Amino acid sequence: METVRLTTAQAIVRYLLSQMIEDDGELLPLFAGVFAIFGHGNVTCLGEALEQVQDRLPTWRGQNEQSMSMAAVAFAKARLRRQVMVATSSIGPGAANMVTTAGIAMADRLPLLILSGDTFAHRLADPVLQQAEHFGDPTINVNDAFKPVVRYWDRIAHPAQILSSLPQATAVMLDPADCGPAFIGLTQDVQAEAFDYPLEFFDPRIWKVRRPGPDPGDIAAAAAILGAAEQPIVIAGGGVHYAKAESTLQWFAEQHNLPVVETVAGKSSLVWDHPNFVGPIGVTGSSSANDVAADADVVLAVGTRLQDFTTGSWSVFQNERMRLVSINTARFDAVKHQATPLIGDANRGLEDLSATLAEWQAPDAWLSAAQGLYSEWNRYLDELSSRAPSGEWPSYQAVIKTVWDNALPTDYILSAAGGLPGELNKGWRSLAPRTFDCEYGFSCMGYEIGGAWGAAMAQPERQVISFCGDGSYLMANSEIYSSVLTGHKFILVLCDNGGYAVIDRLQTAKGGASFNNLLENVRRSNSVVVDFASHARSLGANAEDVATVAELGSALARARSSDRTTVLVIKTDPHVWTGGDAWWDVGVPEVSDQPSVRLARAQHEAERKRQRIGI
Prior knowledge:
Elements: E1 3-7, H1 8-17, E2 19-23, E3 26-29, E4 31-36, H2 46-51, E5 59-61, H3 65-78, E6 84-89, H4 93-97, H5 99-108, E7 112-118, E8 152-156, H6 162-174, E9 181-187, H7 188-192, E10 194-198, E11 205-207, H8 216-227, E12 232-236, H9 238-242, H10 246-256, E13 260-262, E14 277-280, H11 287-295, E15 298-302, H12 308-311, E16 323-328, H13 331-334, E17 340-343, H14 346-357, H15 364-386, H16 396-405, E18 412-416, H17 420-427, E19 436-439, H18 447-458, E20 464-469, H19 470-475, H20 479-486, E21 491-496, H21 501-509, H22 532-538, E22 542-546, H23 549-561, E23 566-571, H24 595-608
Parallel strand pairs: 2-11, 4-5, 4-6, 6-7, 7-9, 8-9, 12-13, 12-15, 13-14, 15-16, 16-17, 18-19, 18-20, 20-21, 21-23, 22-23
Antiparallel strand pairs: 1-10, 2-3
Helix pairs in contact: 3-5, 3-18, 8-14, 10-14, 11-15, 15-16, 16-17, 16-23
């Protein structure tokens, strides 16, 4: 057997370079690049290996481990899980910073390869700098914190271990059912050790994303349920995008006369004005979709894990006869809530199900009624967005409508956490399929900026427009600087509503006092107004303060023509919200000295009676 002598770090990099993926006939590098912040634990060995291959595996330096790995997640999402980015840090706090992003990738079923520095396998130098010792177990360190939030975890304590570990990690990240983040801890001494690796380990390998088909018996069972339905709906989830099943979903809905609603992850599965589309569902959804769902007797869930924001904590579906059919590559998701499962790819599941349904269609009156509700919803949105501000500042919807008026079908809209996900899910009208990314599976603040950087890197032909609140901006803004450095431009629409307004809304809606969320109600000795535009300019970006929505349109045109990231700051009203919400189950104190809380508890208990039990 022919071998080559390499350090462990060099062998890892060589393996990454040899992995390819075939995507619709196009051959691409599976690993598109590396986001790195170097320190002890990864600079002297992994850094040395990466430096040698910059023409084939570029390394991008982030400013914060959490937000640079968010860029890696957004890159993978924009590439529909067909390409993977690597994120690497030193040991200790650098690694711990990436645990949050691993949670995003885990919740959202997205690939991310994390290569973290680790302590020494030989332990002769223990405790090393940044080592968090566990008194009862010397094998535990910070990297063990990744275990609950990754699909694959390993610590390399001998150079030969990567021969089995790297292929397993890669397979997990590309598995449509198990897709998620993979973590490999690289002990410092083993990174440097040389080993005679078999050359065949580095032979080019071409991966393909599998499209498993559902079992024929399951198809027959699902078709029997759907074929007997009088008021069925389809829920389009993120799996529609990952399977590239948008056109199949459209065909299926048209063929069988079905109303389609969408989750946050599934948004832009259909364009907003398609005749079968009736709006977003759930807590951050539309009255149209939620009213249709309330009457549905069969729900066909396609590629969704049925998060509580989709189901209204299982209060949305009010028809006692409702049956659930779920198409999903993951068995875990497909069998949830006593669903009849179709375990397989969304394309194949819809095609096979349609073949068995043959000429069956849902009643015309049912789709017509759903379309009427959706027309009412759009009239409401138009009225809300055009309404004169009740106070000094415009509403979220007025800002969103202005951006939409100036948007192109090729634009890629991105957001996360806070009030904007709800307002965008309700009010952004998708102009083309596969043009929307709102990180709401983990609802992680800060993704709006790091994610925009990664999405711009993944889709240089598109204009990325990210909606961000002032709270998220203050939490994680440093990758604005990274985007300027690397030339991956995006537009950031920064809606400043003076704090964590949507959580203040929840707090007060459940009887609490406004406390510690809006800046006007936090414990403080000074009132300081942040000059966001000046701050963004200090990071190298273009930036403007925009006083009104009328000014926002021209500012967007300037931002679009700019050669670098632009931040547009506009004050928004913290108390004006779009309706349409479904109920959401949260903890409300059972006892309280405050009458408002006791009243909220009574209302919550009354509303909970609509919550389905067992499904």
